[in-house]
Amino acid sequence: MKKDLSLVIGMGVGFGGILMGFIMEKGNPASLIGLSALVIIIGGTFGALMISFSVKDVTSVGKYFSQALVAAQMPSAEMADKITELAEKARKEGLLNLEEIVEELEDPFLKKGLKLVIDGVESDTIEEMLENDISLFEMKQKHVVAFFEAAGGYSPTMGIIGTVTGLVLVLGNLGGDASELGHSIAAAFIATLYGIGFANLIWLPVGVKLKNKLKYEIQARKMVVTGILSIQHGESPTIVKQKLEGYLLEAR
Question: What is the pTM (predicted TM-score) of this model?
């Protein structure tokens, strides 16, 4: 699988830009470190996610995140050429002669569809089965997107909660040392910084990335369905290629 490093690069640029701007204003990076704020943000966000989703979803956050590091499987010219090649072979030699080639295919979705064609399943049934697979895939991926969007909503709120709890402590010690009071107020607002930063540079961008990735992957699967049905109907390779090229234009 091809890796997509734009997520890692973007996060580095985003967090790096904030840190660089802070340093340019003569700020001390060490003053942005707040372990208590981090505990509130992470604990609160994951607690809210566990309530909204499930323990399995929360423990799968690493797996969900890794999906954003894999490049989207877009409708490709390579896949279009492969399907056109299969259409040409099927028209010249018959559908049954595709059996050996099908076993060597790497794409499981294409392989499943062609096996149904070779087995003589009716086109309406094949289309229904493959469209059902696409719908299930879409539903599963939308669930992951919703997970990150929810985290992006909870994180800033937890930041505010962290700031409020910090200010409660500050107000409880108003008669203390003025310099210590200023430090406590600054520390209280770190929670808000963390909450907003995590939401806008991690949770929400990952959700948007997965949503865009899903759009292209659904198009790639629909292109395969079109090709499989064209092969079953015995359409000419030229017609098949023209049909598939429409998906390639949409993916540009």
Answer: 0.88
